[in-house]
UniProtKB/TrEMBL annotation:
InterPro entries: SpoIIM-like (IPR002798)
Membrane-traversing stretches: 99-120, 173-195, 215-242, 262-281, 287-309
Keywords: Membrane, Transmembrane, Transmembrane helix
PANTHER family reported for this sequence: SLR1478 PROTEIN
Name of the molecule in the record: Uncharacterized membrane protein SpoIIM, required for sporulation
Pfam families on file: SpoIIM
Length: 327
């Protein structure tokens, strides 16, 4: 059978399954299982006769989504919050993984712009960070306390303020994606340039090591979350600019639903970053260096594993379950 005819013959059925997945059409578990079996038969046919076709990729994705719906229906007794972080978010991150790559690419580029700008313009840090902040930090560096700025205020008061500020920054990175992703890139540019110039500023005054011991205690969770939030904004923007087979409104709804779930997954990391900044960073230079490194690299391993490695593990597990169901 020619692929064009195969698509024409089954197109309406597949579109109907998409509506079931989106929740527009309600089906009981038995009907869902029947749809799943029918779709698996189409997938097997496509894998046999059109192995490298986009049709096969599409059917494999559709099969994964309806399997997840069946799985969730059968596992209603499982803790919903646990399922959200353990399965749902990782699968979405895997599905949109290229946007995470784009976000990190832009973050790296923008940070380098900030660093190079500070290298060639000695007043750039004052423009970006503010003259008062720079002068205060220089004074702290001269006193041998590069992280002195983090020691002001009460611990709990600082923590609450930091958490709300960081969530606000993340929300802007995400919501600004509604402007076709351009708003997200602008917000990411502002924060990344600040980071680049900030780090070079400490290097220029011979305090990069001390600053890193303090800043990256909380910075790993904070900055990594910022990049993931930018990823969410890019997903939102792409859903508007590139609706594919959906209407632009339905594409936006799907993009918002998926990206918002990923955005929510960053909130615990942002809260942890705020707690570390409020309670731990102020003691950074009094801590054993080994403890600083354990916290910094431990944080990097945790968040890096969750967003880079674990999604592939969950996706492979789901695909294996689908394969076993077919057999």
């Amino acid at each position: 059978m020619r692929e064009v005819y195969f698509i024409k013959q089954n197109k309406e059925k597949w579109l109907g399954i998409e509506q079931v997945i989106q929740g527009k059409i309600k089906k009981n578990p038995d009907d869902l299982s029947s749809l799943y079996i029918n779709l698996i038969n189409d997938l097997s046919f496509a894998q046999t006769y059109y192995p490298k076709s986009n049709t096969t990729v599409y059917l494999n994705h559709l099969s994964s989504q309806i399997f997840q719906k069946i799985y969730k229906t059968k596992r209603v007794e499982e803790n919903r919050l646990l399922y959200f972080f353990k399965t749902e978010v990782p699968l979405l991150v895997y599905q949109y993984r290229r946007y995470l790559g784009y976000a990190f690419l832009f973050f790296t580029l923008f940070t380098l712009i900030g660093l190079l700008s500070a290298v060639y313009d000695k007043d750039f840090a004052k423009i970006i960070l503010g003259e008062d902040y720079v002068n205060q930090t220089i004074e702290n560096i001269n006193k041998g306390n590069a992280v002195g700025v983090y020691q002001s205020g009460s611990t709990w008061g600082s923590t609450i303020g930091i958490i709300f500020n960081n969530i606000g920054v993340g929300a802007k990175l995400y919501i600004y994606g509604i402007f076709g992703g351009v708003g997200t890139l602008w917000a990411l540019l502002s924060n990344s340039v600040m980071l680049g110039s900030f780090q070079y500023f400490f290097y220029d005054y011979g305090a990069l090591g001390d600053s890193a011991r303090g800043i990256w205690l909380h910075g790993v969770f904070e900055i990594f979350s910022m990049v993931v939030e930018a990823m969410c904004g890019l997903i939102l923007g792409a859903s508007i600019l590139f609706p594919k087979t959906f209407s632009r409104f339905n594409s936006f709804k799907n993009g918002f639903k998926d990206s918002f779930k990923i955005f929510l997954s960053t909130v615990p990391f942002t809260i942890c970053a705020g707690i570390i900044e409020g309670y731990v960073t102020r003691h950074a230079l009094n801590m054993p260096l080994s403890l600083n490194l354990i916290i910094i690299f431990g944080s990097l391993i945790i968040i890096g594993f969750y967003y880079f490695i674990y999604p592939s593990i969950v996706n492979r597990k789901i695909n294996n379950q689908i394969h076993d169901a077919v057999l």
